[in-house]
Batch of 4 targets.
Target 1
Amino acid sequence: MKAVLCKEFGPPEKLVIEDVPSPEPKEGEVVLDVHAAAVNFPDVLIIQNLYQFKPPLPFSPGGEVSGQVAKVGAGVKNVKVGDRVIGSCGWNGFREELAIEEARVQPIPDEMDYVTASAFLMTYGTSHHALKDRAQIKPGETLVVLGAAGGVGLAAVELGKAMGAKVIAGASSEDKVQVAKDHGADDGFVYPSGPLSKDQQKELSETIKKLTGGQGADVLYDPVGGDYAEPALRAMNWDGRYLVVGFAAGDIPKVPLNLALLKGCQIVGVFWGAFTGRERARHEENLRELMDLFKAGKVKPHVSKTYKLEEAAEALNEMAGRKVKGKVVLKVR
Ligand SMILES: NC(=O)c1ccc[n+]([C@@H]2O[C@H](COP(=O)([O-])OP(=O)(O)OC[C@H]3O[C@@H](n4cnc5c(N)ncnc54)[C@H](OP(=O)(O)O)[C@@H]3O)[C@@H](O)[C@H]2O)c1
């Protein structure tokens, strides 16, 4: 079977495609025939040894897949051959067959195709946990989303609307803001691509304040970081929640903590991967809620492009180059 392999850390061009032996399931594992593998920002980081998880070489990037169960190992209780599942593997997803622990797979509802299923869990799981558990967002509150046409950003736009918030989308181009509006954002703004000058940072704060009726954001969803974080924090409302989701701009911002004091706001960390392991029961309840929202037509990943397995490097470069709208997915079979 074919696998995209990272044999040395570096940019996507360093990845190779090779034939590797088909896996056999160990105790508690299943083997999936992978149908689709979503591309997420952590895949760009993990191949450069810049992510918090550092698998030993060689490995395949690809944190989440969808597929059909082909083999089950000893002791597997809840999954059988033929089941359609989403697999949250962390890495090793960009390959035709994948061995994965039973606990890391979820059934796919009949209404969901494989491409959509592969693109669903990480982005919607993260944004749902962020808005519901971490921000405890309330209907009528104003949610400002940065990187609003990206994977987790667009999920936050849809979920914010589904939770009754007024959603304001920020992104680096008119096209991207339009994608967010097409997915329910009430308003939007374009910010510069960065790095931002002091004047541009001031303008960003003022834009957010203006679009929130002078109040500032009740909840600010930030998967971008870099030069955007401090001006966004300066545009928080009293009692607001600033969600630290990611650092797609590259730099981890260092913000003046007096801003949290002056605004009476909270700076709240979001780590969905850790939450799924540490708070299993709440995670499973969230999954049920997300699948219900999908079945009710309230949320649906925007897959703007699909690629073949052999085109993995191209797909990763699109993401690293800030070009993706919504999600891109590798169609593996
Ligand atoms: N905390 C968690 O539990 C969790 C879970 C999943 C992902 N994440 C993190 O969330 C971030 C976004 O992930 P994603 O999968 O949604 O990625 P994505 O689809 O690529 O979206 C990221 C967005 O960031 C913006 N951006 C700003 N500067 C960028 C740059 N230099 N390169 C690329 N994008 C840039 C882009 O929007 P504009 O061009 O409009 O600015 C882009 O749409 C990543 O840092 C990821 O590691 C965190």
Target 2
Amino acid sequence: MHSIKAIFFDRDGTLIHEKPGTYLSDPAKVRLYAPVKKALQKLAKAGFSFFIVSNQSGIGRGYFTAKEVNAVHARLQELLKPVVIQEIVFCPHAPEEKCNCRKPNTELGKNLITKYNIDPARSFMVGDKKADVLFGHGLGLRSVLMTTANGKTHLRKYPDLRPDFIAQDMAAAARYILREDSADE
Ligand SMILES: [Mg+2]
Ligand SMILES: [Zn+2]
């Protein structure tokens, strides 16, 4: 079977606005960052499939339910139209539960790579935290760190963090990915 190239996105602070220290569970409060839709349209045109891998520890902490998270994701897919996210997966556990699916653990990514026959060498991870960068590298992807929400703080806090690219918005991330992608061909 032919392999595909994919981009894995973090959700909060990467595709949609994040209020620091808060948990989003209300679909009405989902707001895309301005450059996201156009950037994803360009990337889709270049042949990338899209996935979201998200840590939703608010479920494990009892702040909201998986049902509410799914409602947020339905709203997100609605706002992104005509862009399609192939699949959205999330870890529902609190950090203390020490699961294998909370980023930077790679279980959710591995499952998607197998299910969709994704070629990691032609694929990317885009997120705004240390855990996102490590998740990408753990899977053999190139990692883009967004400075939209937590990225700047995490660069300062973790000087050893080595994302492959630092992007101030999704337009810049897309330009980097398209540049790399033409070098991959
Ligand atoms: Mg994030
Ligand atoms: Zn988990």
Target 3
Amino acid sequence: MRNIGLVATALVIGCFGFSQLSSVSAFGSYRSQLVTQFKLVDARVGCQYCHVDAGGGAPWNAFGQRVQNNLSGNIAKALYDSLADKADSDGDGYTDMLEVFAGSLPGNKDSAPLVAVKTLEVAFEKAGGLEQYKP
Ligand SMILES: [Ca+2]
């Protein structure tokens, strides 16, 4: 009897572990797409690019909410559409596309580019503008 209980417990833990792994993998693929599509430095991109907490999960920051609102099954399109909105999600004076280009966080008002908006806009357009982030 005791062995049956152990086997059942192992199965429950195994299934739970598997579902957690699947969940992590899905979010990991979103992160990979973000890093690749936005030409970011992989090691510098944490969960707080889109989430409020460093560990991810709910809640999402203003930029993460924008991506969620644009998500209809295709993360690459949702990421592009979020920049094409030309919004300043965190209200720090820089549009999300300029923040992505500069390497600051588009959903965190405490993270902003160190150069003036006009200077950054010129460099952004010279580098290819919004088209450089098209999937
Ligand atoms: Ca910001």
Target 4
Amino acid sequence: MTRMPVLSVAAVEAAADLVRRCTGLAFSGPRHSALRSGLVKAMQRAGATDPGGYMTALAEDPTLLDDLVAELTVGETYFFRDTDQFSLIRDEILPAMVARRARPLRIWSAGCATGEEPYTLAILVREHGGARDAHILGTDLSTGALARAWRASYGRWSLRGVPDRVVSAYFERVGDRFELIPSLRAAVEFRYLNLVEDSYPSLATGVCGMDLILCRNVLIYFDNEAILRVARRLLDSLSDDGWLLLGAADPPLGDIVPCQVVVTRAGLAYRRSAGRSVSLPSAWRSGGPEARHEFPFRPVEAASDGSAANEPQVPRRRGIRVPELTPRPRQSAPTPPAASEAETGGVPQDATEVVRRYREGDYAGAAELARRLVPRDGGDAGVWILLVRALANRGDLVEAGRACAAALDRHRASAELTYLHAVLLGEAGRDAEAAEAARRALYLDRRLVVAHLALGGALARLGDRDGAGRAFRNAERLLEAVPPREIVPAADGEPAGRLAEIARVQRALLSEERA
Ligand SMILES: C[S@@+](CC[C@H](N)C(=O)[O-])C[C@H]1O[C@@H](n2cnc3c(N)ncnc32)[C@H](O)[C@@H]1O
């Protein structure tokens, strides 16, 4: 270990600013001293003594940033944390969803830390027979936490309060460790995802059309601007009737983004605003939540002021400053025009409005327009691609699948449509077919990075670790030749650097020895 680096106030401020921009994490009050000591430890591990040089390296090397973030984030979590919320999910949300869905449920634990939260969801799904084949995704920024989540070996402390029956049904005791049984480990997929980046909703990151999102005890560490941005994207990643649950200490969202706020017996829950993307700002401009939702759950306790217990409660305004009043376009534009140019020689003029709406995140509008355009246009592949992506991004994966099949009838040789087909099959849990479709896409275009990633994901879920590792490595090799900020074709606006990071983390997870 190198000698202790000396940090000026300015150096700590510069680091705080960089970390805030990259991760949304804010450091005020007592957390400021945690930043200083975390910074010192991370610099020592990196062998750095000069703060300026370290900061430059930090901005360029994701592994260094990762190491610092691991030092600065609180990964505190345990199984069945907040039992009220989990009983709400078990008793109300899951049964209602299962009754309405003909497809597997899609559940996302955003900021899953070491995996206790998504595995708790997997246990609930397992116990609720009807929802056995749910697709459960756990994502986090910390690759160290993801590696531990993937290993699924826990100490007693992670299981505090969990009934013995549950422990003996789902864990095997090995020395002083509790290892989750393989079938439950296989029920959760872990991926790297930085919530403050604009990589979702998107098929490319597999985050869209979620029926239930848990993002608990994550926003609490963010600054106001990051809270706003992340809240919008979380809501945009829901299916039309999906649910977003935050932790009890997280900021209430009703006053800062348009959404439906539901008061449940386990606290506030959120749903998309009816009929349109929450990225649109009109309701927000008029201030406050746009609608209050029907009250599907058991009555909340009567309020102390005697107001009717069954009335949905308007959450109190909390001192969150709304930092901007105009919608922010996605930082990196999605690729449809470029992808279409590659395949069709350019998006037809009529499609520019579809592209505009898509870029603004108005996926419902983009899908509606694209649908009208497709038959008139005779089926330009670029417009079909926009249609499929817009439907998927607004959460309608079944319709996206139908549109993709119709598009492929007309454009058998389109590598991008074949890749989208692979992703949609994977999202539907049809992994063997997804792998086959991804291979077909690669046969059409060996250099299609996203198809390598889709193949890797499908093979990993099928348990073919070697095959998955090769696929992720192939993606990494192709990406090495591309400048990190360059937008990758067919990747829905993802830059090469971010995809390389995803491939790297996925490969690292595969090489982790599972318990
Ligand atoms: C306190 S843990 C919450 C774990 C779990 N959700 C729970 O409530 O038990 C917070 C997690 O958020 C993750 N996190 C912080 N910033 C993030 C970001 N920008 N993107 C993704 N994850 C982030 C941290 O790495 C950490 O694992």
